[in-house]
Amino acid sequence: MILDTALRLFRERGYDRTTMRAIAQEAGVSVGNAYYYFASKEHLVQGFYDQMAEEHTAAAQDVLAKETGLARRLRGVLLAWLDVAEPYHEFAAQFFKNAADPASPLSPFSDESEGPREAVIELHRRLLAGADIKADPELAVQLPRLLWLQQMGLVLYWVHDRSENCARSRALVERTSPLVARAIAASRFRVLRPLVREVTDVLGEFLLPAGDRTAPGRRPSPAGPGNVTGADPENVTGNP
Amino acid sequence: MILDTALRLFRERGYDRTTMRAIAQEAGVSVGNAYYYFASKEHLVQGFYDQMAEEHTAAAQDVLAKETGLARRLRGVLLAWLDVAEPYHEFAAQFFKNAADPASPLSPFSDESEGPREAVIELHRRLLAGADIKADPELAVQLPRLLWLQQMGLVLYWVHDRSENCARSRALVERTSPLVARAIAASRFRVLRPLVREVTDVLGEFLLPAGDRTAPGRRPSPAGPGNVTGADPENVTGNP
């Protein structure tokens, strides 16, 4: 109830202008009691993330039980997120400036957000496990995390989406799901493997949250660490 | 001089807290005079973008004259941007929340920013024209815009980069430039063409600024507009 009250006040008054005192008052509990459950306003946001991850998992259940096509499963899981997130669209837009900095505890990339992040990554793992198309084995290890990263891209797009009922975000999911499925299928081409491996490595090094960078299966780039600064950047042609 | 003064005050006091009156006062001109050159604070930011595009083009001159390797040209142009932008890193971090919304006139995606945006796209066009590796012809038309989009991705990364001298952003450029060059070379594989075309189309529809969406060379998706909502999302396998 404290969490629900907080989210309502965040929506009505904005995140920055809502105090713990006001949340306690509206929820009809003492300030001490509110602090007992949530040590700070930031912790309320973590509670919100937990709740979103839970509702998202529940909302995606149906499509994951019914569909085996990879594109349909991707589409279903991402549309389920848009459904679950819809009531918070306005809040998200003004909240975004607090969460956009990866160094903020409110960032979905932060250590503090590991719990709900791992829950969503697990959802993407199940999405992949039940699909009829399999990725290149090396890519497969990192893929649930990369799909989570793609979802974060969708969140960024959605936050700025002013179209009615976020129709643009929905159209983006409709358009990209078959594409991502196709790219995953294409990852098995032998000739593309070095490129796939490099892209996966770079995403792992620069974009995935710190705690996940040493995830099992991450391999050093084949050219070794010298690649980063010293190696010849012109070794690019592959064998087209 | 008005612009230089404004940028100094933005850095010292923050964008939100700097008024046109204060800028005029510090620059030693009348408020009317300041408004004569810049109709609003937003226009000062546009002036800043113009100046950045100009300095960036000048700083990239050297590498574009000397290098023919695509990866080296990419690397040189992006590192030149990081050099030129460095003095504004702190300003950019706190300014970002005003510019991150694509609907804001301060967004690099806005109609108001078309001038400096086109200047940077032109720089990427020259980067590609002088390189020894050519892209698939269909991709080539959109590629300068896509490289501009990649640069915006770098800006987003850099804004949040807290490493010393933005070493992480530099490392990202070192790592991604050979990769992007390789991906451009790979775009010529016949078997990848449908995927390349689709990805280019989606980026054009959803991420490029509105004015650029009808750029010459953009073709409708081969499956037609029905693709967006009605078509079978499972046509994904290609022929791996």
From TrEMBL, chains A, B:
It holds the Pfam family TetR_N. PROSITE patterns: HTH_TETR_1, HTH_TETR_2. InterPro entries: DNA-bd_HTH_TetR-type_CS, Homeodomain-like_sf, HTH-type_TetR-like_transc_reg, HTH_TetR, Tet_transcr_reg_TetR-rel_C_sf, TetR_C_23. GO terms for molecular function: DNA-binding transcription factor activity; transcription cis-regulatory region binding. Residues 210-240 are annotated as: Disordered. Residues 1-56 form the HTH tetR-type domain. Keywords: DNA-binding. Residues 19-38 bind DNA. It comes from the Bacteria. Residues 217-226 have a biased composition (Low complexity). PANTHER family: HTH-TYPE TRANSCRIPTIONAL DUAL REGULATOR CECR, HTH-TYPE TRANSCRIPTIONAL REGULATOR RUTR. This is TetR family transcriptional regulator. It comes from Streptomyces chattanoogensis.
